[in-house]
Amino acid sequence: MAVAVVFGVSEWKLRRQYEAPLQALRTSAPPDLAEGERMALIVGCWNGCHGRRGEGGSEHIDGILRQTAPTLSEVLPLYTDEALARLIRYGVKRDGRSAVGMSSYAFWALGDQDLANIIAHLRKQQKTFTPRERTLDLSWRARLALTIGTWGVAAERVDRSRPRWGDLPQTNSFERGRYIATVTCTECHGLNFDGNELEHAPSLSRIAMYSPEQFREFMRTGKPIGGRDIPNMRWVVEAPFSDAEIDGMYQFLRVHHRIER
Question: Is 123 helix (H, G, I), strand (E, B) or coil?
């Protein structure tokens, strides 16, 4: 009976409809394709779950799920800009069901202009990749976590009460750093940057204690003090962060974790 309950509740969460608004993006300028490509690399549309250039990729959380992420050039034409923004921010697909494994809780903070830039850039991609067969394998541990609420589908994990930092002022390095850290680091390290047990990701208080030079080196190489290889951090080598963004992330994380200068 317990197995039936776990399976039934988890299937209901996978198949149910989730409410989320369709809203036009409000931008102050035409889409900037170059900036869209840069942000696509930073947040992981490229060089992330969907492969190096959106060709499709694989995602896994140890002991939880394994799945293929779709080829973006095949999926994007099925969505309007409004529906795509809803999917990215709310985790809700065009049929009203939730995406699984998508980091919408991190992308919630994306500003309208950045999102418009990213979408415009991705839509320019030519259909040069063979679409990947879609698969989703959930473990019983994942189904139990879905049932008791310790893990959730994308739509359940979005905290709509949080600020959308991308649409708020970024008038200094700290504010820009807070925004960039939110849309990148929270995916693995949790919304409060305190670590994520499922992802085996530690609290970012560790690197907030680095010197500015050590932090910059970490964000350019993905290697902590001592040079240890961290496979999940290799992506930062190709992430086009500006020096100001890295310095701002450092400032923000030190303030957030209450580390004295």
Answer: helix
Q: Which residues of 192-208 are buried (b: 16+ CB within 10 A; e: fewer)?
A: ebebbebeebeebbebb
CA-CA distance, 204 to 110, in Å (whole number)?
Answer: 21
Residue with tokens 């200068």: 261
pTM over 0.90: yes
List, by residue range, all CATH 1.10.760.10 domains of the chain: 169-256
Please tell me the CATH superfamily of domain 169-256, with its number: Cytochrome c-like domain (1.10.760.10)
Q: For the segment 141-152, what is each residue's pLDDT rounded down to a tens digit? A: 999 999 999 889
Residue 25 confidence (pLDDT):
96
User: Strands across the sheet with 136-138, in order?
Assistant: 57-61, 65-69, 136-138
Q: How far apart are CA 31 and CA 49, in angstroms?
A: 24
Distance CA 98, CA 166 (A): 23
pLDDT the model gives residue 54: 85
Tokens of 222: 């993905």
> Which residues does the chain have with pLDDT short of 70?
261
Distance between CA atoms of residues 98 and 113, nearest Å = 24
168-216 residue pLDDT tens:
999 999 999 999 999 999 999 999 999 987 777 899 999 999 999 999 9
Cα separation, 151 vs 115, in Å, equals: 26
Q: Supply 1's token pair.
A: 């009976």
Phi (first) and psi of residue 69, to 5 degrees: -90, 140
How many whole angstroms separate alpha carbon 121 and alpha carbon 240? 16
Q: Residue 237 corresponds to which amino acid?
A: V
| Separation in Å, CA 196 to CA 89, 164, 191 | 20, 22, 9
- Residue 125: predicted pLDDT: 81
